[in-house]
Each structure stands twice: as structure tokens, then as C-alpha cells.
Amino acid sequence: MPKMIDFLRSGQAALTALLLGFGAIGGFLASLLQIPMPWLTGSLALSAVVVRFTRHKLPENFQFPPKIREIFIAVIGIMIGVQVQPEFLQDLPLIALSLTLMTLYVPVAHSINYLIYRHAGGYPAATAYFAAAPGGLMESLVIGEKHGADPTLLALQQFLRVILVITVVPLAISLWIGSPVGSADGLAQQLPKMSLPLWQMLPLLVITGAVGAVVGRRIKLPAGHLTGPLIAAALVNVSGLVSLSLPVWLVVVAQIVIGASLGMRFLNMGAALIVRGIGLSALSVGAMLGLGVLCALSLGWVTGQPFDVLLICFSPGGVTEMSLIALSLAANPAYVTLHHIYRIFLTVILMGFGAKYLTRNNSNI
Questions:
Q1: Cα-flanking dihedrals φ and ψ of residue 171, to 5°?
Q2: Model confidence pLDDT, tens digit, residues 256-301
Q3: What does pTM read for this prediction?
Q4: Distance between CA 327 and CA 189 in Å, rounded?
Q5: Which letter, b or e, does each residue of 252-291 get, where b requires 16 or more Cβ atoms within 10 Å of its Cβ?
Q6: Rounded to a whole number, what is the distance in angstroms from the first to the last CA of the chain?
Q7: Residue 107 to residue 127: CA distance in whole angstroms
Q8: How far apart are CA 150 and CA 237, in angstroms?
Q9: What digits encode the pLDDT tens for the residues 41-87?
Q10: Alpha carbon 251 to its chain's center
């Protein structure tokens, strides 16, 4: 409570609300233009532009409140969890096959990225290694800075990875299927219908999300703020006690919040640094998506699964954002999310081994 009072008194609450207002405007404009994932990408784009042009007028310590982002990440987790049906277990053989391929994808993608950042970018070894991680955005920042990586370059490349993937993949899939993905109407068609009035459903959603987030954090699940509520909502739905669902406006608000929080990351980065980072990230993301296409084609040939669903599984964006894309395509979001959680898990393990090697060999890799 004291932290909340300090937050309100500092004026940051008003600035955060203003930033979210711009995010909502950006999302609305993007939806009018039928841009893929409009509420997420539109919010991100306009928020980034606003903070870049007003950065000299903002407080030095201003940042997007992480607790607000975590709340709405939990909303996305619940949204995915309510899609889980008992039939999900029938896909276990297919899941095992694709996760095996993911086990190969992660170290290959990490190695290619390292070569790009080390040789094309000229980054020091530690910075190149942790910037190359194909997942685990926050984990790479924490572990990388601890082992001598440049925190500014590391944050830049990791955030650009997520931003480029969630921009390019929906656009490519929209061109593939012939219509934009991620509109509010599309999400409304995929979400289960509300089985209870909103005033009864909201307390159930809050309790489910809160319990899931606390348990996920306590047992240290990967992306616990998302996966904890996801598992909690899935268990509630599969148990048959009550059928959870979310109003589509809540999902739209969650996308605006997540987009604005990503756009905020450009506040303290110089224009030249961003432009150079975009060039390197384009090489990195292009290589990873090319590798993802090969994985999707090979798995599709063996299993008959749709190419676009498999491509989302092997696209190195954020768990939350890729799950939203899966939902908009009527793909099984739980199936997609499982792949991204596993990707993050493998990446964190790989970063741990790499950190030990860097320490032993004085960063000479």
C-alpha cells in the first residue's frame, strides 16, 4: 500500500494513464487501418513515438509500472487457459515430436544469433551471447548484466527481437491467409461465450488469476505471471465446476497495456543506437524465422498440422504476444503457449551453461 500511495503522489500514475490513452488511440487507429494485431501493435507504435518525442519532459526515473503489466499478462494467461479442453491430451504424441524439434531449434538459433551480434555487430562476447538468446527476455537481462553484458545493448536487442517478431509474423500470416489477424471481432469469435453475468464472472476471474500468479511465482514456473493463471484457468474449466470466459473488451485492454509497456522501452535509447539495433535484429529475426519455417514445413509434412500454427510455435516472440496471435487464428493457444514456455525454459538453461563458460574463460568465446 505505501508503494501505491507513493506512485500516486509522484505523478507517475497520471503519466501512465496518459501513455495508456495514447496506446488506446494507436490501437484504435490500427484497427481502422486493418493492421494485423491492431490493439497490440498500434499501442506499441504510438506509445514508442510519444515517449521518444517527449522524453526530455518526462521524469528521469519514469518507467511503466511492472505490476500493471503483470496484472494484464495474467489476463492473457486466463484467456489461454479457458481454451484448454480435455481433448488436448490426445495431442501428446504430436507435442512430444514438436518439442523434440524445439530442443534442436534453440541452440541452433542461439548460435546463429551469437555470430550475428559478435561479428556483424562487433559486440563484446558477453553482450553478444546474451543478446543472442532466442527467448527469456527478462532472464537474459538479469543473467547477462550479472556476467558483464552491456545492459543497454542487451535490452535493446532483446526488446527489438520481440517487437519485430510480433510485427512481422502477423503481417506474414495475414498475407498468407488473405485477411488481417487479431481484430477484436476475431478474438470475440474465439473466446467461449460468457456463462455467467459479468458481475459474477469478474470475481471468479480475479480469484483464479491471483491464485495462479502467486503459485506460479512461488514454484518458479517459466513466465509465471502468464503460466500460473493459465494453468489455474485450465484446471477450473476442465474440472467442470464452472466455465470461465472473458469479455472481449478486457482482452483488448490487456493488449493495449502490453503494447504501451513495450513502447515505453524506447524512452532512454538514442536514435542512432535504435537504428543500428534494428538492422542487427532484422538479421537475427530473419535467421530465426527462416529456421522456424524449416521446422514448420518438416513438422507439417510429418504430422499434417497447419503451417501457420507451427510457424507461430517456432517464432521467437514473447509468450504472451505469440499466444494472442494463436488465439486470433483459432489455433490451439495452449498448444502454442506450451512450445514457447519450453523455448524459454531451454534458453534459460543454455544461458546458465554459457554464463559458467564465460566466467571460466574470461569472456573469450
A1: -65, -45
A2: 998 888 888 777 777 788 889 999 999 999 999 999 999 999 999 9
A3: 0.73
A4: 10
A5: bbbbbbbbbbbbbbbbebeeeebeebbebbebbbebbbeb
A6: 47
A7: 17
A8: 44
A9: 889 889 988 888 887 777 767 788 888 888 888 888 887 777 666 65
A10: 15
